[in-house]
Write a structure and sequence with these properties.
Elements (H helix, E strand, L loop, with lengths): L8 H9 L8 H15 L5 E8 L2 E7 L2 H13 L3 H8 L2 E4 L9 H10 L3 E6 L7 E8 L7 H26 L8 H21 L3 H15 L3 H14 L4
Antiparallel strand pairs: 1-2, 1-5, 3-4, 4-5
Helix pairs in contact: 1-2, 1-6, 1-8, 2-6, 3-5, 6-7, 6-8, 7-8, 7-9, 8-9
Length: 238
Amino acid sequence: MTEIDPMAPAAAFAELGRIKFSETDFSGVLTRVAGLATRAVPGADQVSVTLVGAGGAHTAAFTGGLALALDEAQYEQGDGPCLTAAAANSTVHVADMAAESRWPNWAGIAVTAGAHSSLSIGLPMHEFVTGALNIYATRPGAFSDEAVSLAESFADYAAVAMANAHLYDTQATLAQHMQAAMQSRAVIEQAKGIIMGERRCTADEAFAMLAKISQDSNRRLRDVAAALVARVEANPKR
């Protein structure tokens, strides 16, 4: 398996925010999301992005054949962690494939293929398309609580980048269909502005501070940002 070059989470988040949609199409954005997740989430070996629409589910981006094969096995069976995560916009963690009881047939396929744990996180995009970020590992117990929290924060930001890329590609107004993702981005930007004002720092430095708090407190990035905004609104400077 190809050796992974680790990337600091804050750097990966910032990279997502710097994607230029005029230079990268929707498929390219998905490929960037998968690649950055592989480098930023501790324990990750391969990553894929599942999209689910009216025509069913398909893997829109992947970093290796193992991830693609395990996604497609779920589509074939009509069930599995990535489909569940996409449908419920939730996080599904399979800590040990050998002990997995929810999807025993699929887990058996995964073990045979060489995957022993996985993490799937829902990606809200808009009303007609949902998705999931799927992270696979070749050892059991690969994802700590901190890694799960980090992956959820990454997925929050990735969902915004994906939604914006889709909007740019189709030149359609999807704002009303991406309410959850856009609200997350708005509160994150507001929190960044607060930190920049208080600390006299750059936007990237402010985002890095939010990301660090998210990792240390095991909370989603958007929840950390919302708490900061609420605190400032409750105690405005006179």
